[in-house]
Amino acid sequence: PVSGEGYFVDTSGGVSTANLPAGSAGAIVSFADYTRTFQTNNLTIVPNGSEKIGGVAANLTASTEGQSITLIYVDGTEGWINTMDSAGQAGLQALELLLFVQLVIL
User: Fold this and answer.
1) Of the N and C termini of the chain, which has fewer Cβ atoms inside 10 Å?
2) CA distance 1 to 42
3) Is the pTM of this model over 0.90?
């Protein structure tokens, strides 16, 4: 992947791996589950060299159907930070919709 780009990932044929570019402050990369198959065929996101993802020197695995992830590089301590993960937002979006519907009915 290249900084500043977004990628629609097709894992319908099997698991996939994305190697992050060398990090520089403000670099951004996004991935989205194009075929909604991350739950059966994961996307593994690999940091460059000894860089980190979320402060940990390890790979990040996307394993939720329809998941999208946006990573921004901060510094050598935290590395790539997951700033937007649709898998973690699903419950919140459902709650917001429920509250909106209740307000409209009132």
Assistant:
1) C
2) 17
3) no
